[in-house]
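Researcher: Please generate the 3D structure of the following complex. Treat every line as part of one assembly.
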Amino acid sequence: MNRARVLVTTLSFLSALAVTADAKLTRTGTPAVTFHASGPAGMNIVGTTSDLDVDDQGAKIVIKVPLKSLATGIALRDDHMRNKYLQIATYPNAELTLDRATVHFPNGDTASSGDATGSMAIHGKTKNVSFHYNITRVTGTLHVGGTVHLDIRDYGIDIPSYLGVTVKPEIGVEVQFTATE
Amino acid sequence: MGLVRKTAALVAALSVLACLMLASRPAFAFPWMIREGYTGCNTCHADPSGAGILTQYGRGMEEVILRMPYKKDADPGKTGNFFFGAFDLPDQLLLQTDARNLVMTVIPNGSPAQLYDYVMQLDQSAQLKLGRFRMNGSIGYTPPTQEWGGGGALAASLTDQPSSWGAIVARQYWLGLDIGKDEEFLLRAGRLNVPYGIRTLEHPFFVRSVTRTDSNTGQEHGVSLAYTGEKVRGEVMAILGNYAIRPDAFRERGGSAFVELTPSTKVAIGASALITHADVARSDLEPSLSASPIFRQDYALHARISPAKALVILAEVDALYNSQQLPGGGTSNHFGMASLLQVDLQLYQGIHLLAANEIYNGHIAEKNAYNTTTVTAWGGLWWFFAPHVDLRVDFVYATGSAPGSTPTSPGSALLAQIHGYL
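Model: Done. Output below.
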């Protein structure tokens, strides 16, 4: 009985060591973050930024997207988005924090994908979200993609409306980046 | 005398407009707005398939992304509103007053140049939306003849013609019902733009003129159902005839439809079909036709692509088929084609360089004098230089002629037009 306890404790300790001993993720290349919003009767808005940071804290990974360069192609709309709705002066980033253990990293030059959960912080509010990820390792470089669906009302963001056209609160976000370990 | 009559006509026009300030009309149709990610039309236009009276959002976008900006990222405020925001209209009401004038020099091959001045548009249009119900219409004035700078919109005439006073024209008027959770469907009945091909302002383009689907005078009475979704939009219309023309034998009846897919916010691909029948063909529009019953069929494929924000490519190719029952028995079938390739280059916001190429032959495979291919080359500069005002200059060279084309015979034409709206 005691031997069994010692064995379990040892394995748990080694497992924890294995997690924390994983090489840290370092973002490489140019990431792409895209959000898709829609309005009444077919209106589409696509916003993009190439700002994305990966903060590998060992057991947790934080993916941070600075919002100041998020752009939709129309300057006035971008100004409203950043300052009136996202209020980036106060809340400059969107952050997804996830447990490393919830994501399966492929071994060797293989791929993995799945659904996982994490906590999303936007506009000063944090909410648990489910996201889908896919990771492909090619000669040591991880190609990471992820999608998540958000409702901006969950984050206390006013629903954008301009001259009678109101954007739907549900948005889709796609993220792609490469990283090395 | 001429001056007096012209002044009288002008006074009459202004009187009509003054009496109809509770109504309004269109002059827009910018399929190249896809460069901004606007694949559909109904966020900016009351007509779900484009053209015509602008929505409040459309007026705002005219100021924000269409007109030349003189102050970076400035919010236009009320500048884009009706009458520059002098009146606060209720949300349910849209009003628009349009005026467009064209000065055109036509230089036929081997002949002296001729100068024309056309009042292209003096329209007032309006839309009233109560809940899901809409009433939409336009009314305007066209001078009586080319001598008076008019005569071009008489297929939309409400009054008898010819008249020394010109005519009152109504290009569109309809009742509509918005259907669906997001009002993605619109059911309409009235005089409508025919849903077919690329909805463009340039009504002389062969793809619009020979198919009679332009937004100048190509409207028909009928019933339509339009759908606008995120990836698909389209409209189907039962054509009951243009009741602005007489006698009834000339009225075309049938149907038309288009569907457009948008795989991305910068690419749209569409297909259209139109099938109509009339007891007597419009040989005034197409001299090769005989005054006999006619089935007219047109089929089109089109694309709108913006590979970069500055550049938009519009393309349409149409297959044309006219089948006539001849008085002495037998049939006369005509196969034809029309195509358009247009490039819009936005040099700077508000300044557009335009180039277009058209090809038309309405009688392919026939051994007669009508089997000729007309090719045109367009070049133009369009400047949205101030709130509510734009100026455009075009040069057109044509190797032949085609129904509704500019110029109407081999040669070249230089066009300058100014458009303003309230």
